[in-house]
Amino acid sequence: MTVKTRFAPSPTGYLHIGGARTALFSWLYARRHGGHFVLRIEDTDRERSTPEAINAILEGMAWLGLDYDEGPFYQTERFDRYAEVIDRLLEEGRAYRCYCSRERLESLREAQMARKEKPRYDGRCRHLTEPPADASGDPVIRFRTPLEGETVVNDRVKGRIVFANRELDDLIIARADGSPTYNFVVVVDDMDMGISHVIRGDDHVNNTARQVNILQALGVEPPVYAHVPMILDEDGKKLSKRTGAASVMDYRDQGYLPEAVLNYLARLGWSHGDQEIFTLDELIQLFDIDDINHSASSLNSSKLQWLNQHYMKTGDPAHVARHLAWHLGEMGVDPAGGPSLEALVSAQAERTKTLREMAQNSLFFFREPEGYDEKAARKNLKAGAAPVLAALREALSGLGQWQTEAIHETVSGVAEGQELKLGKVAQPLRVAVSGGPVSPPIDETLALLGREATLRRIEAAEAWIAENVVDQPQEG
RNA sequence: GCUCCCAUCGUCUAGCGGUAAGGACGCCGCCCUCUCAAGGCGGAAACCGGGGUUCAAAUCCCCGUGGGAGCGCCA
């Protein structure tokens, strides 16, 4: 059997992190089996679907690198086809027109709820042969669900699930205006597009029995279903925009690499023994529906951060640098005016968790620090630091080659000359050039910053000390 | 309320009748160290409860309990 999977989001919002995972699973499964992956936009709800949301979904897919072999298909462009199938169902008596008013349906539901029954259509129009006398307005079309027997779904992740048909009611497949509804279009599309495996969130399990029944009425073999558990937020609650990043683009904005997000998502609800780090190729090779978990899982941002740092540390610096450049740009920095981004990535990757943090902590390489971190200055830019800085400035200005190793020797040389531990020299220097207490190793920092900026900032620090510290009572 | 699903460290998970219940993130401690990190080493930390089945249950069955989903002229 040729494998064909699909991702079928409704364009009513951004590409959700949960949706991204189902998309990833579907994509991986198709790639794993040399099949096709289809993107289908479920936009039958014209009220809620927006072009912005469609773009957001396409953008999210592109950022993650989940490419599709077919589509995007739009359901709104397939209305003729749906009408055709509905007519066929009507002719064959597998569907019927229902003239019940919304009001009647509403009170029916209320009465059932009051009786603690499961609300469902009572089948009043099921046996009508012609419109009732009191009919007003256009009818909806309902699917004639079998009254008896059971519908079995052999779910690839949940196992065998049995639904008694009497628990199902006659669902509406076309609205009064003739437009088809979700449970119906899904079935027609999956059938027409030759979808072999439906991988989707398990909030759809209860729909599956209805869909299987429609498929059977159409005389078609159902696809293989695999319902993956939900993703919960860090507190184990349902995901919402409120509780942090829900849209995949938020992850980009927060400084995550797409490969980190992909790896993280893959390991959320799926596993392969004790392995945590997977390349995309490994995922394609190893992914299997049978290894998907049965229970919902919570997001854990610290694990994502760990993965992200892993990819920043071990990835191709040029690749990471491209992403870093984007974030620098977001912060109004033109990377052209500073050190090599690749070198910067190498220097910062092991001390930052995200690209955003890396960019933030690297700002001083591109522009003068805006003043000194108060605490760091109080501790390191004391009166006693002035001669140290002066010595450093002198030694560094005479340095032949502005390279890490030579700089390192020079700085340690100054420390020895002043009979100070390296830290006593490096730290004031660090504050002087970076404005704060944290940076890559001082020699690397200076090498990246360049001689000119280094000397200028040392001088500025000396002036700052003269102006702000000289009159203060000296302490050690 | 009815139907369906789920249940191993805080979190992600391995386990598929016999294990000292393993790994990862995070956390704690030590080492390393010019800052912050990274890294190395070590540590604390889990089978929801009760019944069965079995020589033997985290693993199989049942019942509870607790979560979740669905019950639209939404998808």
Automatic annotation (TrEMBL):
Keywords: Aminoacyl-tRNA synthetase, ATP-binding, Cytoplasm, Ligase, Nucleotide-binding, Protein biosynthesis
Residues annotated as domain Glutamyl/glutaminyl-tRNA synthetase class Ib catalytic: 3-306
Leading EC class: ligase
Entry EC no(s): 6.1.1.17
Pfam families: Anticodon_2, tRNA-synt_1c
Keyword Protein transport recorded: no
Molecular functions (GO terms): ATP binding; glutamate-tRNA ligase activity; tRNA binding; zinc ion binding
GO terms of biological process kind: glutamyl-tRNA aminoacylation
Cell location: Cytoplasm
InterPro entries: aa-tRNA-synth_I_cd-bd, aa-tRNA-synth_I_codon-bd_sub2, aa-tRNA-synth_I_CS, aa_tRNA-synth_I_cd-bd_sf, Glu-tRNA-ligase_bac/mito, Glu/Gln-tRNA-synth, Glu/Gln-tRNA-synth_Ib_cat-dom, GluQ/Sye
Principal location: cytoplasm
SUPFAM superfamilies in the cross-refs: An anticodon-binding domain of class I aminoacyl-tRNA synthetases, Nucleotidylyl transferase
Domain Aminoacyl-tRNA synthetase class I anticodon-binding: 323-461
Nucleotide-binding keyword on record: yes
Cellular component annotations (GO), alphabetically ordered: cytosol
Assembly notes: Monomer.
PANTHER family per the UniProt record, alphabetical: GLUTAMATE--TRNA LIGASE (PTHR43311), GLUTAMATE--TRNA LIGASE, MITOCHONDRIAL-RELATED (PTHR43311:SF2)
Family: Belongs to the class-I aminoacyl-tRNA synthetase family. Glutamate--tRNA ligase type 1 subfamily.
Protein name: glutamate--tRNA ligase
Organism of provenance: wastewater metagenome
